[in-house]
Amino acid sequence: MSNVEERLLGCFRAVFTNLSSDEILQCSNASVASWDSLATVTLVSVIEEEFGVTIAPEEYDYMVSFELVSQCLKTKTVNA
Amino acid sequence: MKLAEALKILQNASSRETETFTVYLACGILPLHLTTFLAAHLSKRLPERAIEIRTGLYGDLPGNLVQLQMSSAHAGAVVIEWSDLDPRLGLRRLGGWGPSILPDILVGVQLALNQLLQLLGSCSQSVPLALCLPNLPLPPISHQPREQSGLDTLLLEKSLYDFAATAAQIPHVKVVNRQRLDTTSPIFERLDVKSDLSTGFPYRTAHASKLAELLSDLIAPRTPKKGLITDLDDTLWRGLLGEDGVDGISWDLDRHSHIHALYQQLLRALSESGVMLGISSKNDPELVTEALNRQDLLLPKDRFFPIEVNWNSKSQSVDRILKLWNISADAVVFVDDSPLELAEVKAIYPGIECLRFPIDDEQGAYDLLEKLRDLFGKQHIMAEDVIRVASLRSGVEFHQHAKSDSAQPLEAFLGQLEAELTLSPVPAGDARALELVNKTNQFNLNGRRLNDAEFQYALNRRGAVSLLVSYTDKYGPLGKIAVLLGEVSANVLKIDTWVMSCRAFSRRIEDRCLQYLFESLDISEIELDLQPTTRNGPIRDFLAKFVNAELTSSLRIQRETFMSTKPALSHKISETSYV
Questions:
Q1: Closest chain B CA to residue A41
Q2: What's chain A's Rg over C-alpha atoms?
Q3: Is this structure's pTM higher than 0.90?
Q4: Cα distance from A43 to chain B (closest Cα, Å)?
Q5: Could B3 and A14 be called an inter-chain contact, meaning their C-beta atoms sit closer than 8 Å?
Q6: ipTM for this model
Q7: Are strands B420-424 and B464-473 parallel, antiparallel or unpaired?
Q8: Which residues of B touch A57 (CB under 8 A)?
Q9: B349-384, pLDDT tens digit by residue?
Q10: Residue B318 and residue B345 in contact, taking contact as beta carbons nearer than 8 Å
Q11: Distance CA B398, CA B476 (A)
Q12: Across the interface, do B4 and A10 touch by the CB < 8 Å criterion?
């Protein structure tokens, strides 16, 4: 697991406290009942704090699974 | 505190199966992360309670204040933003910012503030409130350049400060200190435009955390320290008394020692607000007496009690001072210029807050003064604060006489005290009574602390009985020294709160209170909700004489048992009324 993924895992753990690490790696907003719009906003804020990046509202569409969030974040950190 | 950290704190606290402390957060913005941070900071401040934050509807601050009033919350946090005073002052509405609109905004803001004042007045009757004024920068409404204060914005600020000054005078309303917020969260680092436009939450997370921390400070304030022990050389004054002599020590501008004068000035202010001041100095006692008698000293010598001047270790002096003050080490601050002395005291008394007076560092010393102001900050200054040192001295005198006069029986000694008790019901909102409940440890029935709302409830419940006790004798007044709360039903009085200041021990006041209650209420039994704590030995020792069994939980005292067991009582009851 890459360093970005490790740190992202920590962000997910902070928001989705009842999920195990394995569940987080596979999770999406369709599979996690508590992943509503409020959870998305909280997740975005936690990620912005952790990585020092800004996630634009139009990028919220990618905030639907650990995998997509991870890809989005890698693009940002590579381009930064 | 970062958001992830706040979430973690809440996750750890979620398993607390304890009494819930509920706060209603009333605001017009989307509360979002402010809720999380407020819960997290309160959770740190009140580790023994589960925290619940309730919120209302977006964009309806007046409506949320009405909801707050009807809620059964223990406290309210009211956060006002410019958009609550006029939507045109927020970013999510487009009513225009032109010069022609500003007079209308001013009128609207004034009307909104008037309405909020009324609602705050109503709310605060049932729930204590922490109030935060708009803390975001104003949008660019003024046509003047940014470096110039526009008249319209100045008038807006004036309306706001007039409002705050009035609100601060409403009982149970505390206003967040804007200067403090400015210090911890710079104004240009507060607004999150993206978040405001996309969600309606206008704060950056770092600012939300700082704001929540200040609100939690007001909702659940830290217990202020009670006593300060200071060193003399290079602390109360510049110089070494033994080397420089009485005239060689200084605290003035000419000799670049003015920071010590500011320290003296602060100590005097603390003393006038009831803080006990003691001296621990390795010095020649005669020289110290001479120095403390200097007319230009900014606080009179009698403000210090006791004065421990000797060549022993500082911790030994501190030990004597703590015993005389009869307070625990964690209620005390020790100030000295020597890191070695501070470490020595800290090693013996880990609970003492040991602070270094940094010589040759005016800025550092000034920061110390600010820190001391924080540690001793209190909500009210009461009559008892003003007489504290005098009553402390008289208490010592009292105990010395009681011990030394062995030829005189205790009854005779107490009989000639001219002791006088004033008993009355606890007036609603009596700050001293609430302070006693929340800071007394030794003579405390169960260690239970009450917030404003719980205190008011206890006074107003069905069958409520309350007793506020003041004491004076020929050694001087002690002021209000005991509080008792309970409820009477049929022939039984159930007492759930009973505290008495340790300064009032050994005078049989506790016996006299029970006798008064039995007789004035004409009851046959008193039930006491006793809960042993690590520090309430004195009240357990007192109650033990009325029961034969071991004291572990609540107990009942029959009137006949009390009357046949109580010692001789000679207090004069100077004033009584319905309790």
A1: B199
A2: 11
A3: no
A4: 9
A5: yes
A6: 0.84
A7: antiparallel
A8: 194, 197-198
A9: 999 999 999 988 999 999 999 999 999 998 878 777
A10: yes
A11: 10
A12: yes
